[in-house]
Design brief:
By secondary structure, this protein is of the alpha/beta class. The protein is built from 21 helices and eleven strands. A nine-stranded mixed beta sheet has the order 4-3-7-2-8-1-9-10-11, with helices on both faces. A two-stranded antiparallel ribbon has the order 5-6. Helix 1 packs parallel to helix 14 and helix 15 packs parallel to helix 16. The radius of gyration is 32 Å and the shape is elongated.
C-alpha cells in the first residue's frame, strides 16, 4: 500500500481516524444509557473525552528573523492552491505582528486585529481574546483572491507614534545594534499598527484543526512574554527559518537559544528550514557542485545549532510556490519543498496521535472497566440467587423460612454497614473542603494580589525578583499542601474500599490515584523561564524596568492561574471518580439483597412456583451474559482504534 506523505493527506487521514474514534466512543456512551449502565461519573468522563476530541488542535509555529522568507514558506506549504500569494511577502519588514491562522466555524471568514496601544495595559493577548469589542474586524471575501490579498495587507500596517509612546509600547528606539525604530524627520517613530492578528479562514487544513502561528523576529518576541511563555512551548511543531544567503546570524542564534531550544527543551517537532537555496542555482556550476554547496551550508548550520543534520531542510519556498501554482513538477522537486512537507507530517501527526491515544485510552479504559465490574457483580449476585433456589427444590416450608431469615439478617447487617458508609462520606467532604482551601483559586488570587502590591511599592529590581520568587514559593506551597490532602483522602478511601470488600464482598479494586506532579512541573518550567529571561531582559532594557517586570508578572500570573484552574478541574473529576464506584456498588448490593428476599418470600407465600422463578432467573442470566458480550464488542472497537495504523490495516484485512 502506497502512503502519500503530503501534509494535507496525512492530516486528512488523522482527522478521519479521530472522527472514527469519537464516533465509537459516542456509540459506547449511547449503549450504556440504553442499557441503563451509565452513572453520572462515567457519563461526565465520556462527554469530556468527546469534547476534547472535538476541540483537538494541531499548532505549528513559524519563527524567523526578518526577510528569511517565512511568509513565502507559509504561502508555499498552505496556500499554493489559491494560485497566488495569500500572505504579503515583499522584501522588507512584512509581518511585524504575530499572526494566527485558524478556522472557527462559529464566525464568518475575517481578520481580527488587536491595536498595538493595548500593549500599554498589563493584559496579555489571551486575556483580550475574551473581549471581542477590543478588536478591529475586517471581513474576508474568500471568493476573490485580490480582495483577500488586500485584506491581508492590513496585518502589516504601521502607525507613527512619539518616541515616548514607542518606548511605552515596548519598542526600543534608536539603539545602535537594534536600529529598527528610528525617529523620522517629523520626530515620530514608525511602529506596527497591530499587536496581534487572527485570520479566520476556511482552508481545508485549518478546518481540520490546524493552527498556524506566524511570529515576527526577536524584537517583537521579546516584547510579548506570552509568545515565549505559552504559545511557542505549546506548539506541536516549531519551524525555525534561516536564510541560505545569510547562514546562522547572531540574532538567529539568540532566537534559537532563548525561544526555541533553550534550557534543554529540544522536543519532537523542532525543524530548521534553510530557505532561499535558489540563490545557489548558478548556470555556470554543475548540479553536483550546487548540491555540494547546499550540503555544506546544511552541515555548518547543524554544527552551529547543535542539531542532527536530518532536522535541517534546505528549500526554496519561492520556487516551491511558483512550481505548485504552475503545476511544474520538476521545479517542485528541485525546490525540495516536498521533503519538508513529508517531514512535517511524519513528525507532527504521529506525535499528535500518540498524545490523543494516551489521553483517550486511559480515560476510556477506566470507564469500561467500571461497567464491566458492575455487570460481573450483577452476574455473581444472580448466580448466588439461582444456587439458593435450586437448593430449595423439594424442600419444605420450614427450610424456606430459614432461608428467608438468613437473607433478612444479611440485609440488616448490610444496612448497619451503611451507617459507616455515610460516616465515611461526611469525613470525605471535610477533607475535600480542606483540599480546595489550599488548591482553590481564592487562595491563588490572594497570593497574586499580595505579589502585585509588593511590586507596585518596589523601589529596587532586587525587590521585584524577590517578589517573583516568593510568588512561586507560595504557589508551590499551595500545591504541596494540596498533595498532602490528596494523600490523606487516598489513604482513607483505600482503607474503606478494603473494608467494604472484606465485609460485604463488594468488588472495588483500588481507588484511582491522583497527583499534582504535572502542575508542579509547569511551575518549575515557568520559574526557570522567568529566572533566565527576566535577568537577560532587564539587563537589555534601559527604560522602565519596573514596568517590564510587572508586565512579565501579569503574564506569569495568568499562566499559573491557568495551571491551577486545570488542577482544580482534575481534582474535582478525581473526587467524583473515587466515590462513584463505591456508591454504585453499595446501591447494587442493596438491590440484590432486596431481590433475593422478595423471591424467597414469593415462594414462601406460594404465589410463584419454584420452577417458574428459576426459569425467569436463567433468562436474566442469559441477557446479562449477552450484555457483557456486547460491552466487549463495543469497547473492543474503541480499543482497536488505539493500535498502530499497520495493525489496524491488518485487522481490517
Amino acid at each position: 500500500m502506497v502512503h502519500d506523505m503530503s501534509l494535507a493527506n496525512q492530516f486528512a487521514a488523522y482527522t478521519a481516524w479521530r472522527s472514527g474514534l469519537a464516533a465509537n466512543i459516542g456509540e459506547f456512551q449511547e449503549w450504556l444509557s440504553q442499557n441503563e449502565l451509565s452513572d453520572a461519573q462515567s457519563d461526565l468522563r465520556l462527554s469530556q473525552l468527546l469534547e476534547r476530541l472535538r476541540e483537538d488542535r494541531l499548532n505549528v509555529a513559524f519563527v524567523a528573523e526578518f526577510s528569511r522568507g517565512k511568509s513565502e514558506l507559509i504561502n508555499a506549504i498552505f496556500f499554493a492552491e489559491f494560485g497566488n500569494r495569500m500572505l504579503p511577502s515583499s522584501a522588507g519588514r512584512t509581518t511585524m505582528c504575530p499572526t494566527e491562522l485558524l478556522f472557527d466555524g462559529n464566525k464568518l471568514p475575517c481578520i481580527e486585529l488587536l491595536p498595538i496601544q493595548t500593549r500599554a495595559a498589563n493584559s496579555s493577548v489571551t486575556e483580550y481574546k475574551r473581549f471581542p469589542d477590543e478588536w478591529t474586524i475586517v471581513q474576508l471575501d474568500i471568493e476573490s483572491p485580490e480582495a483577500m490579498q488586500d485584506a491581508l495587507r492590513q496585518v502589516s500596517e504601521t502607525t507613527r507614534v512619539t518616541p515616548e509612546e514607542a518606548g511605552r509600547l515596548g519598542f526600543e528606539v534608536g539603539q545602535e545594534e537594534l536600529d529598527l525604530y528610528r525617529v523620522g524627520t517629523d520626530g515620530m517613530v514608525e511602529v506596527p499598527r497591530w499587536r496581534h492578528a487572527i485570520i479566520n479562514f476556511p482552508h481545508p487544513l485549518l478546518k481540520q484543526g490546524l493552527i498556524i502561528l506566524d511570529t515576527p523576529g526577536l524584537n517583537a518576541i521579546g516584547a510579548e512574554p506570552e509568545l515565549t511563555l505559552s504559545l511557542l512551548p505549546n506548539a506541536h511543531a516549531v519551524l525555525f527559518i534561516l536564510g541560505a544567503d545569510t547562514g546562522v546570524t547572531q540574532s538567529d542564534m539568540a532566537i534559537w537559544k532563548e525561544h526555541i531550544c533553550g534550557g534543554g527543551t529540544a522536543r519532537r517537532g523542532r525543524l530548521v528550514v534553510l530557505n532561499k537555496i535558489d540563490g545557489q542555482w548558478d548556470e555556470l556550476k554543475t548540479l553536483e557542485e550546487i548540491d555540494a554547496e547546499i550540503q555544506r551550508q546544511v552541515d555548518s548550520s547543524a554544527a552551529i545549532l547543535d542539531l542532527p543534520e536530518s532536522q535541517i531542510f534546505p528549500v526554496s519556498a519561492q520556487k516551491g510556490l511558483v512550481a505548485k501554482i504552475n503545476g511544474d513538477d520538476a521545479l517542485l522537486e528541485r525546490s525540495r519543498l516536498p521533503q519538508l512537507e513529508a517531514a512535517l507530517s511524519e513528525e507532527l501527526i504521529p506525535a499528535k496521535r500518540d498524545i490523543v491515544c494516551d489521553n483517550t485510552e486511559s480515560e476510556f479504559g477506566e470507564v469500561s472497566r467500571v461497567v464491566r465490574g458492575l455487570l460481573e457483580s450483577r452476574l455473581a449476585g444472580l448466580r448466588e440467587q439461582l444456587t439458593e433456589l435450586t437448593e430449595l427444590r423439594g424442600k419444605n416450608k420450614g427450610v424456606v423460612e430459614y432461608m428467608m431469615g438468613k437473607v433478612r439478617a444479611e440485609k440488616d447487617e448490610f444496612e448497619s454497614g451503611l451507617q459507616r458508609y455515610y460516616a465515611v462520606r461526611s469525613v470525605f467532604s471535610t477533607l475535600t473542603n480542606k483540599l480546595f482551601a489550599h488548591l482553590g483559586l481564592d487562595n491563588l488570587r490572594q497570593v497574586t494580589h499580595d505579589t502585585r502590591e509588593v511590586m507596585l511599592d518596589a523601589a529596587f529590581s532586587k525587590t521585584l525578583s524577590d517578589a517573583m520568587a516568593q510568588f512561586f514559593g507560595r504557589s508551590r506551597e499551595a500545591l504541596a499542601k494540596s498533595n498532602g490532602e490528596i494523600d490523606e483522602i487516598l489513604a482513607m478511601m483505600e482503607a474503606v474500599y478494603k473494608r467494604f470488600s472484606v465485609e460485604h464482598g463488594l468488588k472495588l479494586g483500588s481507588p484511582t490515584s491522583f497527583s499534582l506532579l504535572r502542575y508542579e512541573k509547569e511551575l518549575d518550567r515557568l520559574q526557570a523561564w522567568c529566572d533566565g529571561h527576566l535577568n537577560t531582559m532587564v539587563s537589555l532594557l534601559t527604560h522602565d524596568k519596573k514596568n517590564i517586570t510587572q508586565k512579565f508578572f501579569e503574564e506569569v500570573a495568568i499562566q499559573v492561574r491557568r495551571a491551577f484552574e486545570h488542577a482544580n478541574r482534575d481534582a474535582e473529576t478525581w473526587l467524583k471518580a473515587i466515590m462513584a464506584p463505591m456508591e454504585t456498588q453499595v446501591r447494587e448490593h442493596q438491590i440484590q439483597l432486596k431481590r433475593r428476599l422478595e423471591s424467597i418470600k414469593r415462594i414462601h407465600q406460594a404465589t410463584d412456583t419454584l420452577e417458574d422463578r428459576i426459569a425467569e432467573l436463567e433468562n436474566v442470566e442469559k441477557s446479562l451474559l449477552q450484555q457483557i458480550q456486547s460491552l466487549e464488542e463495543i469497547a473492543g472497537r474503541v480499543r482497536g482504534m488505539f493500535l498502530p495504523l499497520e495493525a489496524q490495516e491488518l485487522r481490517a484485512a
